[in-house]
Design goal:
Layout (H helix, E strand, L loop, with lengths): L2 H8 L6 E5 L5 H9 L4 E5 L6 E2 L3 E4 L15 E3 L10 H4 L1
Parallel strand pairs: 1-2, 1-5, 2-4
Antiparallel strand pairs: 3-4
Length: 92
């Protein structure tokens, strides 16, 4: 099963906020924001251009620089990004 398909299947009615760490250009989150308009999608990547739309927020941040995100998101995922982290222990 492709990872994008797996993630789509995990977005249920009770999922309201989703965070992708290492979202790159935000392409996948843009697709998801159109498919699931009632869900707020957030993406962080140190090289991304900031975007704020109705249910899509892309922010130029590093994963290690996000303090206290526990409880803010119903779903957090990362695709092909873990190996880029300088301090993976902080991320986990």
């Amino acid at each position: 099963m492709e990872i994008q398909t797996f993630i789509r299947e995990k977005i249920r009615e009770d999922v309201l906020r989703v965070l992708e760490i290492g979202s790159g250009s935000g392409y996948f989150l843009r697709e998801l924001s159109e498919e699931f308009p009632s869900v707020s999608f957030f993406g962080i990547d140190p090289f991304i251009t900031e975007v704020k739309k109705e249910n899509l927020h892309l922010l130029p941040l590093k994963a290690e620089d996000i303090p206290g995100i526990e409880g803010w998101f119903d779903m957090i995922f990362s695709i092909h990004s873990f190996h880029h982290l300088h301090n993976p222990e902080v991320f986990i």
